[in-house]
Amino acid sequence: MADERARIGMVDDHELTIRGLRDSLADHPDLDFVASAPTVAELFDATTDLDLVILDLRLRDGSSPVANVEAIRARGLDVLVLTSGEDPFLVRSAARAGVLGVVRKSQPIDAVVDAVRSAARGEMVPTIDWAAAIDGDPDLAAVDLSPQHRRLLTLYAAGETATRVASTMGISPETVNDYLGRIRLKYADAGRPAPTKTDLYKRALEDGWLPFPRRRRKS
Asked: 6-135 falls under which CATH superfamily?
């Protein structure tokens, strides 16, 4: 990509952050800030002709970082996370979903631009914050769930009954209970037991399968 401009898209719902990055990249002829949007779907409604998507982890629509990363990667695009970094669980989940790196918004602008340039070339952008979020908590061992198990967990942990989950997924209630037993066993084997529905909800939050509840604004 030495003789081409890398086409950059951004998913963020903070206008100040978007303007700041757009203006900063404008000073670099090898980087072309093409489009921004508050959600992944809206970005792709605007364009898919991109080389890299810069993603904020906590969006107002409450979407899961894992789902957002997977949706972007399904388009054959790389992802660089640009976040305030206040939630290590979200950083962990994004890292496991296959992003090229996680950069804090508080970093100097030159460092952010260098990270964007490296990611646009398809290079990993390792940072201390990223490594600490993934490896710093031994009690949060990874649990590998199949797509079917993951979907069931997100439905059930979000509050659906086993009967409703069975209807939504087109499987029997007995299969739902069997899958829940397997999911609980995997978490128990990882040292993260989830015997109750509330525990499963916590695990789904920790691993990024469910979005964290939005913070209420003070009136």
From this structure: Response regulator (3.40.50.2300)
